[in-house]
UniProtKB/TrEMBL annotation:
InterPro entries reported for this sequence: Cyt_P450, Cyt_P450_B, Cyt_P450_CS, Cyt_P450_sf
Family indicated by similarity: Belongs to the cytochrome P450 family.
Name recorded for this polypeptide: Cytochrome
GO molecular function (one): oxidoreductase activity, acting on paired donors, with incorporation or reduction of molecular oxygen
One Pfam short name: p450
UniProt entry tagged with the keyword Oxidoreductase: yes
Associated pathway: Antibiotic biosynthesis; vancomycin biosynthesis
The entry's keywords: Heme, Iron, Metal-binding, Monooxygenase, Oxidoreductase
Keyword Cell wall biogenesis/degradation: no
PROSITE patterns, alphabetized: CYTOCHROME_P450
SUPFAM superfamilies assigned: Cytochrome P450
Record's function text: Involved in the coupling of aromatic side chains of the heptapeptide of vancomycin.
Length: 401
């Protein structure tokens, strides 16, 4: 049983599993038993193995059976999961093609000026509060969360007054909260997105959601249900991972003054530093659920068909067999081979945008706050209780100058 203490520091457990049971059947939180894969080579291979399937309908059936629930149990309703991340083969190819036109590297680069302006706004607001006498500000709530949330909501055309709600919904959906709480959050998000998609179809705008909803050159287009699920994926994935990247990366720098000083002195190292933050504290610590479509042998362990498999990206990116001194921050390290954004056909569609947001966020922080420090003891910090994500609940900071 992997309990809540695992959330605060999973790495000793990962180290033990890699050494003794790199493919182990475990229970994580309230989920049914799953097979957890922790070694780099096995995880990387698993991410590209078509025998580890992702079909949402089949996955829901397996989850219900594992939990001893009837086929139509609501606890594992997968309605919002019928998107490209939970599809296989030709269906995945079709869905990804319809969405990828809006998430090219060039499209992401065009967003840089807006991201820079937002980051500067948020940094100025934090500086003003500190100058007015605030003992500290929360780098998560005041900076890491609103930056990517505002960006993804703007490019998808979500109105200002609903953006804060998405954070609460997505955190609940991705947490180990009781099933009824997760279901309530999914329903609330689904109902809102259902209406949003209908509005965008009827009255297209200049936003990316409208572009995604338009038919392609072959007159193919997302159905209403597919569009609602895709909007959910883009909204959740479009901010949660970057929030975690900014928070975890800032903490790593503040706990390593020598590395922070080197980065301040050599800002050209920033793109590589972002890659190191992604490796050291992978924002998606465990890839989304897969299941064995047939009997599969991984790392010498045979897993029967119809079993849930979790690929521990956070463990793989700290495997000493792949990265030297993996538990240390080294902003000049070669992170070649890092799988923080996944690997294979499900490689993160928003990787280019996430990298730009991370680079801009840290550049602005370093420029605006030359004397940023932690406002609490590191031992007081808490991490979100999630199987999938690795991110801080809060990061109180202050400045000594």
């Amino acid at each position: 049983m992997i309990d809540e203490s695992f959330t605060d520091d999973p790495y000793p457990t990962y180290e033990l599993l890699r050494a003794r049971r790199p493919v182990a059947k475990v229970r994580m939180g309230m989920s049914p038993p799953v097979w957890l894969v922790t070694g780099y080579e096995d995880v990387r291979a698993g991410l590209a193995d078509s025998r580890l399937a992702k079909d949402a309908t089949k996955l829901a059936r397996i989850l219900r059976r594992a939990a001893g629930l009837p086929e139509d149990a609501e606890e594992f309703d997968m309605g919002l999961d019928h998107h490209m991340l939970h599809s296989d083969g030709a269906e995945h190819t079709r869905l990804r093609k319809l969405v990828s036109k809006a998430f090219t590297g060039r499209a992401a680069a065009l967003l840089r000026p807006r991201i820079e302006a937002l980051a500067a706004e948020l940094a100025d607001a934090m500086a003003a509060r500190l100058a007015a006498g605030a003992r500290s500000v929360d780098l998560i709530e005041d900076y890491a969360f609103p930056l990517p949330t505002t960006v993804i909501c703007e490019i998808l055309g979500v109105p200002d007054d609903r953006r804060a709600e998405f954070g609460g919904w997505s955190r609940t959906m991705l947490s180990t909260a009781p099933p009824h709480e997760q279901l309530a959050a999914r329903e609330a998000m689904g109902e809102y997105l259902d209406r949003l998609v209908a509005r965008k179809v009827a009255h297209p705008g200049e936003d990316i959601l409208s572009e995604i909803l338009a038919p392609d050159e072959n007159a193919d287009r997302l159905t209403h249900a597919e569009a609602t699920a895709m909007a959910s994926l883009l909204l959740v994935a479009g901010h949660e991972t970057t929030v975690n990247l900014i928070g975890s990366g800032a903490l790593a720098l503040l706990r390593n003054p020598e590395q922070l000083g080197r980065l301040r002195a050599n800002p050209e190292l920033l793109p590589g530093a972002v890659e190191e933050f992604l490796r050291l504290e992978s924002p998606v610590t465990t890839a989304t659920m897969r299941f064995t479509d047939e009997e599969v042998t991984i790392g010498g362990t045979t897993i029967p068909a119809g079993e849930i498999v979790l690929l521990a990206i956070g463990s793989a990116n700290r495997d000493p067999g792949r990265f030297e001194r993996p538990d240390e921050l080294d902003i000049e390290r070669s992170t070649r081979g890092s799988i923080a954004f996944g690997h294979g056909v499900h490689y993160c569609l928003g990787a280019a945008l996430g990298r730009i947001e991370g680079e801009v966020a840290f550049r602005v922080l370093l420029d605006r706050f030359p004397h940023l420090t932690l406002a609490v003891d590191p031992g007081e910090l808490r991490w979100h209780n999630s199987i999938l994500l690795r991110g801080l609940v809060a990061l109180p900071v202050t400045t000594d100058g």
